[in-house]
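User: quick one
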Amino acid sequence: MKQAAPDTTSTGVGLVETHSVTFAHPPDELTLESGRKLGPITLAYETYGRLNREKSNAVLILHALSGDAHAAGYHDPDKDPGWWDVMIGPGRAFDTEKYFIICSNVIGGCKGSTGPSSTNPATGRPYGPDFPIITVADMVNAQSLLIDHLGIEKLLAVAGGSMGGMQALQWAAGHPHRVRAAIPIATALKHSPQQIAFDEVIRQSIMADPDWRKGNYYDHGQPNRGLAVARMIGHITFMSDTSMEEKFSRRLKNGVYGYSFAEDFEVEGYLRYRGDSFVKRFDANSYLYITKAMDYFDLSGGRLIHADREIETRFLVISFKSDWLYPSHQSREIVREIKRGRVDATYCELDSTYGHDAFLLETDAQTGLITHFLDNLGHRHA
Amino acid sequence: MPDTTRPDHRIIVDIIENGSRVLDLGCGDGDLIALLKTIKNVRAQGIELDNDAVSRCIMRGLSVFHGDVESGLMDYPDRSFDWVILNQSMQETRKIDYVIEECLRVGRRVIVGFPNFAHIRARSTVFFCGRTPITSSLPHSWFDTPNVRFLSIKDFVAFCRRKSIAVVDVRYLGKIKPVHVLPNLLAINAIFVLTRRPK
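Assistant: Done. Structure below.
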């Protein structure tokens, strides 16, 4: 584990707080990709490090499906740090001594940003199924309002893994003049039918739970069983064959077969534990809305880099060998689009056995690549 | 240029014009690209298969794709680069025909540098010792060589003629100095500048 000697790299950013800002008040609601309008919109966000006077050192970190604004440091009195703490802090990949780091919860989420569990101002009750379908572009457009609010014109970089990588790509595609560099990790230009299929099974497991009540469950409690199963499916796809073998093999919880449907194998216990703890922290409707947003995402066919525009965005694309949920060929497809747009890019496939989880776990290799990539952006600028 | 610069790199830097757009296939640690960026202010992109070499390129701030040369070329639009460099990596390439054709498509001109298998020392090792030659430009034993192609300067000239590829310039290298006479016998490396023959 990483918390040994109290040097600067192991102390991280310390205690942090989540802030929030509300904008897009009616009648100036945000027009969504679907044509529907959403407002007011609250975004929960955290920042680490200091914005320099030129406001040129801001890096936006983008979270994955179940992530939140709490990317680094500790909330009082939590024991666990933010979800990408190993990558953010003094001396880390996203070095808070050099960069001003921002992370916000996506719209559609349930960690302080406006989503289906938020109160609908029109009714005074949670939106539930009345919440409009949102897309990755909508998430990014809302973030750009946050960046306006922080007084930043151009981000030094946008970075994230999985759905965070989709947002990074969307930033480059939709707001090319506002990002100098994008770091999409373990992600894709679009979901393949296999990825959509997994998401559909995940959604169906939630919707098949009678407690889901067509999305109007807020007076009764969550569809716990359905959401837990949904998360269990997710966890299977985040690991690799090898990492599951290493972590669980066929080990039994009690050493012998129980000859029942109780949890015999460690892997069963792990999935059940993950499922049960997830329902305490995540809203089932948010899971539906966000997986749908990921399925709709599609920047293929020349939509990532527009031929008619001189785009200076630099790309660092990272994939992991054992990631079968977002396999390397999807990252190479991103790279292909960049090549076709005649834009400079760097691509690296890292060796890892962790599967899709690697973007959260392979700290050293990613740190090496990202540190130098960001450093060299700085030099170019200076 | 620093004194330690490899002679083949010196020649390539000399050939390439200021501000060109360059693709280096099999760029290794990025020595050549770094040199071209410093001296000729080029915009450069590398392709490299080796993991560690890719990391070292990124540490130097170079743009590099992790992948093999053959699949790395096809996605570029025609004439994406002023120069495509295939230096000391053609002998490790399987689909030579395809790679050279692709180089000529994505680049206006192509630099191909390779070790000369017909160098006098290689010839004499075969002739007098009856052994597979090991020379400064062909330093590997038969069992651990990454090379899958063994060719001479004359072989490559014949190849270009057969493929109707125009040879714009050729430079021959000895161990340190250029070679001007009997290159197929005396040069250990050759650097060809190619372009597509106008139809």
